[in-house]
Specification:
The structure is a homodimer of 117-residue chains. With 117 residues, the first copy, chain A, is mostly helical. Chain A has 2 domains: 81 residues, Winged helix-like DNA-binding domain superfamily/Winged helix DNA-binding domain (Arc Repressor Mutant, subunit A); 35 residues. Helices cover 68% and strands 12% of the residues of chain A. Chain A is built from 5 helices and 3 strands. In chain A, strands 1-3-2 form a 3-stranded antiparallel beta sheet. Chain A is globular, with a radius of gyration of 19 Å. The N and C termini of chain A lie far apart (52 Å). Chain B binds a DNA duplex (30 and 30 nucleotides) through helix 4.
Chain lengths: 117, 117
DNA sequence: GAACTATATGTAAATATCCGAATACACTTA
DNA sequence: TAAGTGTATTCGGATATTTACATATAGTTC
């Protein structure tokens, strides 16, 4: 395995991005930004959070390069830094759904087996 | 925003998967499993970790449904639970690379501007 | 069953994360 | 410059994560 310092560093950034995604609130935030940029208060109300909590999560997303905030007059509008972030999230969600569906089908079979017995 | 309990729960699982990916060691582990299953000692040597550390990370990956371990005789062989996990990781890595490249190009420009001035 | 090998877990210390509440800061408008 | 609105930070405590070291468990082979 290549243990060069470069790989090490890039892998840490890679993990950092994943860490940015590793919170339900932040995932909901990113999906909330799919269609259009939103300001903090908007997100705060949409996600039903205390405003400081919204800001803190946005800071993490910013630090990991997942969102970009730009001030327009009184507001700071946040938007996705890269649309492909949603692709990645969708892919992981698909993997999850397939797993849940598979488990559900196991329960199905289990039930019908029980009925047979 | 739909705040149904179901969405809440699925989003937590979604975040859980991301959390499984949110560690450099675990990312290297997953990439180490791309081509073929490996046992714990194999991974331990490849990643140059203490064996208990390897086991612990594998446990997390297992819990998040990212890898599957199956015993064959004396060894437990771990493999990716779903190849698409690598697709997702690759996509995130691409996003990261593009960002790094972009930043590097900024530095480039900055340098050449300095030379011009 | 004893010895052996592979893998997992307990524990403790260091470190990080999350949240709520209060407060500070930034920008705009009057 | 003062008031007002939007956004960020600080602090505290509770909780979780990571790691190393030691040890336990599980399965195999003799």
């Amino acid at each position: 395995m290549n243990k060069s310092p470069l790989l090490q560093e890039v892998t840490e950034l890679h993990a950092g991005i994943c860490n940015g995604l590793a919170d339900p609130t932040r995932i909901l935030m990113l999906y909330a930004l799919v269609d259009e940029p939103r300001n903090v208060n908007d997100l705060t109300e949409t996600l039903n959070l205390p405003q400081p909590t919204t800001s803190r999560h946005l800071k993490i997303l910013r630090q990991q390069g997942l969102v970009i905030g730009e001030r327009e007059g009184l507001y700071i509008y946040y938007r996705l830094a890269d649309k492909r972030i949603i692709e990645a999230l969708d892919l992981l969600r698909t993997i999850l759904n397939d797993r849940l569906t598979y488990r559900a089908s196991l329960v199905e079979n289990q039930n019908s087996n029980q009925k047979q017995e």
